[in-house]
Design goal:
Strand order of the largest sheet: 1-9-8-5-4-2-3-12
Shape: globular
Helix content: 25-40%
Order of helices and strands: HHEHEHEEHEEEEEHHHHHEEHHEHEH
Largest sheet: 8 strands, mixed
CATH superfamily of the largest domain: Type I PLP-dependent aspartate aminotransferase-like (Major domain)
Structural class: alpha/beta
Number of strands: 13
Length: 377
């Protein structure tokens, strides 16, 4: 049997809920299923306002608009992230400013943020890599001192916490992803979380193509019209119906993923002890959601060889981001204050292992293959 890198999980209620959405005669956005998903996010994450979007990319674009980003403004973020983190701000004319990541968690190095701040800086975008929280107390302290917004890119962070606080509830805004590779999925999908009350009202307008349509449906105005910039960021009720079934099983899904994560961590411990790999690091103040399990090989050559050997055994593994600063668009639109040695080093050594519900019965095959192969590379 081929072991894929990812296999989307279904709870069993998704198709039933989709049928209900169709039967109700409301398949466009902001119906009953959307509202239930948003209420679940607000209750579980303790955010002021949750708005479903058709992707995390859309949520990031909304956050950039809400931040009132202007051409020439600077936004601090890691280079080791998905392109949407930067693209959302480049679309507003801003310049992403990359700082290096920590060698332990692979999150933005909070000790390097302050020196990257200039008079043009408007926001900080910490990315919670692999569902492990950035050092948010320090980041929020820096932001408060310099009057900056903090936008948590929590695409991988649902059900994770930092000092007991759910990721997505700490910054002024946050974004989530429900892509099929994430823990809680809807195929494509995302959400914008708004914690700053000053931004909540405008968020509705931006999401509704720049109209005050939401106010109209709440009876606050007698007709709706174009009042601001915006776009169509709503997902359909079909997407929301699928997602609702997932949210109802969020705790169960997370527990099973954590069990798979723990098995990897325990079984591969001997390889780390003997210097063949490095395993993920989770600080004591963080609770991870098991978004992914990765290992760090000694160098690019070892990683390439391991991918190839595992492929021969029908086990699919993948590397992750190409650092944005080394990409063609990154060199055109972005800026770095100093070299990014940790980012450059990690990017060529990191390997992501299969992690999906149902892997449990095949996981021994994966760990045995890694244990037997790595020592021979």
């Amino acid at each position: 049997m081929k072991i894929p890198f990812n296999k989307p999980y279904m709870t069993g209620k998704e198709l039933w809920y989709i049928a209900q959405a169709h039967s109700a005669g409301h398949m466009a956005g902001d119906g009953a299923f959307t509202k239930k998903c948003q209420a679940w996010l607000e209750n579980s994450i303790k955010t002021r306002k949750a708005l479903l979007t058709h992707s995390c990319t859309a949520a990031l674009e909304m956050a950039a608009i809400l931040s009132d980003i202007q051409p020439g403004d600077e936004v601090i973020m890691p280079s080791y992230t998905f392109v949407s983190t930067a693209n959302a701000f480049v679309l507003r004319g801003a310049v992403p400013v990359f700082v290096d990541i920590r060698a332990d968690t692979l999150n933005i190095d909070e000790s390097l943020i302050e020196e990257a701040i200039t008079s043009k800086t408007r926001a900080i975008v910490p990315v919670h890599y692999a569902g492990v929280a950035c050092e948010m107390d320090t980041i929020m302290g820096i932001a408060n001192r310099h009057n900056l917004l903090v936008i948590e890119d929590a695409a991988q962070g649902i059900m994770s916490t930092y000092k007991g606080q759910p990721l997505g509830s700490i910054g002024h805004m946050a974004t989530l992803s429900f892509h099929e590779t994430k823990n809680i999925i809807s195929g494509e999908g995302g959400a914008l979380l708004v914690n700053d009350p000053r931004l909540a009202g405008r968020a509705d307008i931006i999401r509704e193509k720049g109209t005050n349509r939401s106010q109209f449906f709440r009876g606050q105005v007698d007709k709706y019209t174009w009042v601001d910039i915006g776009s169509s960021y709503l997902p359909s009720e079909i997407v929301a119906a699928f997602l609702l079934a997932q949210t109802e099983e969020a705790t169960y899904i997370t527990q099973r993923r954590m069990a798979i994560w723990d098995t990897y961590h325990n079984e591969l411990g001997s390889l780390e002890k003997n210097g063949f790999i490095r395993r993920p690091v989770i600080p004591a103040e963080c609770v991870s959601n098991a978004d992914m399990y990765y290992i760090l090989l000694p160098d690019a050559k070892h990683r390439t060889e391991l991918i190839s050997k595992l492929k021969e055994l029908s086990i699919s593994t993948v590397f992750h981001y190409i650092p944005l600063h080394s990409s063609p668009a990154g060199s055109q639109f972005c800026h770095i204050k100093r070299e990014l040695p940790v980012t450059d080093d990690v990017a060529v050594r990191l390997l992501r292992l299969p992690l999906w519900l149902g892997l449990e019965e095949h996981q021994r095959r994966v760990t045995d293959a890694i244990l037997n192969t790595v020592v021979k590379l």
